[in-house]
Structure formats: structure tokens, C-alpha cells
Amino acid sequence: MKILYINSLYSPLIKGGAELSLQLIVEGMKSLGHEVVVASLHPEPAPKVDELNGVKVYRVPLENAYWPYLDTQPSTLAKMAWHARDRKNLTMGKKIRQILKDEQPSVVSCHNLAGWSIAVWDEIYALGVPIIQVLHDFYLLCPNSNMNKAGIPCEDQCMSCQLLRYSHAKNSSKVSAVVGISQSILNRFTSAGYFSQASKQVIYNVRTAPEPQPPRVRKPREKLILGYLGTVSKVKGVAWLIDQFQKLSIPRTLKIAGKGDDATLEEFRALAKISPVEFVGYVKPNEFLKTIDILVVPSLWEEPLGMVAIEALANGIPVITSGKGGLSESVKHEKNGLICSPEQPNSLGEAIVRIYDYPSLYNRLSAAASFSVSHFLDKSRLISEYSQVIQETKSKKFTD
User: Fold this and answer.
1) DSSP letters along 1-18, please?
2) Which residue, 90, 134, 169, 323, could crosslink 339 as a Cys pair with Cβ 3.0–4.6 Å?
3) Domains annotated on the chain, with CATH
4) Percent of the chain with pLDDT over 90
5) Mean pLDDT of 140-160
């Protein structure tokens, strides 16, 4: 069977977990004997076709106002123009039409469509090829892909999102199967009326983990080293964490690892000036995790999955988290971590103190951590589940 995968980027152009997971899926399906082809975008003016680990990769120029994967920020007007065209970019639809005609796939698996837009659905559907849509983020609901505005999570679509996504739910009826990387993200879309005709499945992403680590062991009154790892932003709950950390009287240190814009970092440094907080910048996750006792994931928005929590647990490190979105699907309260509520701000500080006061609780959580996420670390499970969805989707198309 020939499978065409469509994503905004493909290795070595990597911006996040979607690209890492997609490469695992593509190469895994190839190992099962399927013919796999990838269509992705690149910033160069001319198209090219290359091969990566035996996989044919189309790299297509983006027809829009600018290349969005740069550190520099375009003007508000330029962003508006970019998103308006990206609502349904017919020029990009024509580009995928040619690839479809050249490759004639049996099924198409769409992942992040930023830049491509849902114009690709029209072209695939017109040729009678079944579509599988994998949900890694909120792009199909929100042009910014993150369902937050100015650091405040959005409970529903704002007016601009409604305008730029007004036809997306209706168009999603062309999709034969939809896969969420968590039950949370799948529910968010189906409750908004998306994918009414599609079969539905949750398939958790995987991460490569180290060899199982021995459980961490804490002793009474030992200094507690807390860590945060990820984008340093308001919607990630970093201000909440710093505020709660400052109110604690226990021996403790907080290490904040990751990148953020200069203004936000300046604000957080000012907020943390009376506390033992270290801003360590970009780090390799596995190296950083070796230096902390517990990871705090205080996200205020609905994380699609929250892979950073899974990485920590795989390293035997308990997690304190808000449990927003997919985080509650890996972190289980009092099993491998603690869940607190942003609606009860002091609950975060109370959870930290509880870990400090009760070493036996920490030791129990650490002992359970690695095994509790073994499902998320199983590459063969990921490939098997995607293979089953593809087979069922193709079979359903023939029997409809």
C-alpha cells in the first residue's frame, strides 16, 4: 500500500514533537513493507524531491506572505494577511493535487496543515482517496494553533478564530478517520462539531527514553530541587509557579529551562528576584532531568498531550501538574505525581510542600513513575496502532 503523509515540516526541519513523531510513524510504516511518501514545506523558492532514510520527501515552497518558522515576529497586519490566505490556500491545494496525481496513494495521512491549509482535503477527497487526519495541535480550530490569546487560555473560539475557521467543521466531514494524540484533544474537536463522518481513535505519541532508571529516594528535610522545562510563557503557568514558589519557606531551588521572548523573560526574572530561581535557557531534556527532584508542569491551557511530563516520568521523576488537557492522561494523582488546580492557586504551593514534608510519598511516586508511562515509550505500539487505522480506513472506503 502507498501512503502519502502531509505535514508542514519534515526532518531535518523540526519545530516540535509533531515532526519527531511523524518521522517515527513514516519510517515505522516503511519497515512494515508499505511504500511511504512525505509532502512537506520548505523556505526555498523552488520545489525539490529528496530521500531521507529511504523515504521520498517532497519539499514544496510555501505560497504565502512569509515563512512562519523564524524567530523574528512579523507585523500584526502581515500576520492577519498570512492567516487569511491560510484559511484555504488554493495555490497550495494545486501543489498537492500534482503530487497526488504523480504518486496515486491508497490513503493520505494529514498531520499539521499550517501552510498547506484545508485546501488539501478538497483535492484528496476529489480523487476519492481516504483521508486520515491526525490532531497534534489546535490549528484547525485556531490560526495560532494554541487556543490562547495574550497568555490567557481560550475556552471557546474568539471572533477572529470563528471567521478564519468558519468552514472547517463542515469541511472536516471529508475526513474518513481522525486520530487524536490524546483523548482531550479529540474531545475538543468533536465537541466543536468536527469530523462528524470520521471514525475516531486515540493514539499516544512516543518518545525515546533512557534505560529504566532506579527510583529516586529522598530523605527527610532534604533540599527540594524543582524544575520547569518548556516554553517560558504565561500560558504555560510559569508566573503561577514562580508566585507560589516565592511563598514557600522550605529549603528549595527552582530551575527554569527553555526559551521565551525577551519581554516575558524579563518580567519573570523580576517576579523571581527574591527567590532562589535559576533561568538556565535551552538544555537537553535528559541532562536537565538528572539535576532535579521533581518536574512542575503548571500549564494553564489544554496541552494536546504534554510530552515533557512523560519524559520526566520515564526518568523516574514525579510530576506536579495542573492536569490540563492531555496532562491528566499520563500524570495520575498520587500514583506518579500530584495534580493541582489553577482555579485554586495555592494548591500548587501546597503540593510542593507535601512532597517536601513526606519523603515516603515522593519515594512511592518515583518508584511508580517509569513503569506508569511504558505505554507511551513503546514504538512498536505506535506503529501497530497507526497500521490498524490505515488498514481499517482503506477497507472502509472500499466497502462504503
Assistant:
1) -EEEEE-S--TTS--SHH
2) 323
3) 2-206+378-399 (3.40.50.2000), 224-376 (3.40.50.2000)
4) 88
5) 89
